[in-house]
Amino acid sequence: MYRMSKEEKEFLKSYDMSKYDRPSLTADIAVFAILQTKESDEYRKDPERKLGILLINRKDYPYKNCWALPGGFSNKKEDLHDTALRELREETGIDNAYITSFGVFSEPGRDPRGWIVSQAFLALVDRAETRVKAGSDAGDAAWFSIDITRTELKKHVLKTKAEIKTKYEIRLEQTDVDSLNSSQSQSNGVVISAIVEETRVFDNHHESISYEILDSGSLAFDHAEIIVRAFKSLHKEADDEGRIIFDLMPEKFTLYSLQEAYEIVLGEKLTTPNFRRKIAPYVIETTDIITGAGHRPAKLFKRNLDAFYE
User: Fold this and answer.
1) How far apart are CA 268 and CA 51, in angstroms?
2) Which of 118, 122, 95 lies closest to 27, judged by CA?
3) Which of 11, 40, 210, 276 lies 20 to 30 angstroms, CA to CA, from 184?
4) Would you state the pLDDT for residue 133?
5) pTM of the model
6) Across all residues in the chain, what is the average pLDDT?
7) Which positions of the chain have pLDDT values less than 50?
């Protein structure tokens, strides 16, 4: 354990922190889940499912009545991971989410209240086990299906330099509601569209990335950019290792529903034999089965914890 010398203690006594401007720190959380968007009209066909994100309707200024990610200011003697867990619990009632940080947002002017730096977190939950409840500064909370279309606008490559511009068009549609004031909710059927442009510059093979919000729609602050980057982070983790997808699942699940969750996040169909070979080390078959109208009984599986905690 580090021990300060007498000279260092004397130095710190006279050190004046007021000489430097200090930002406020916040945590913003992108909470994803698999949503059932509508029932199927066909007897043997499963309901449609899509990737969803949780948004809070702000009841106070700034951005009053706009939609935002759950989050808030950090308290003294609290690290930002604990801030994210606390804010998620206070604003949504969620206390069992997988949560990990994926970026720092410090663009000057990102918040009209002043110099505010945010640590952004990615959270995953099982929608069926999640019941949102009222927080102190939220009007309604709602689950939105999320679709992001990627369009490459420019790709200019030289010998040691390159510039690539990409447009991300976000479409959020309210499809699954947890109203904090269900009898008074005015938010049903909301559709939000936003556009974010990404610029990747390579100089001597070293990459730098910047973002510009071209249209924030009715999203507050810079949350359109945070949503794009959260979506990209989720997609990358699912593509690289894939174990993150299990945090979207209930305790027991069918292999079909697990594959469907992967396909929803990755945005592509997977070959069933290849998928099952790849996922085999991470699952254990249980003695339980699930039955449903129009379907044959299916075996239920659970995580193989030895593979997750190796």
Assistant:
1) 13
2) 118
3) 40
4) 63
5) 0.89
6) 88
7) 43, 179-186
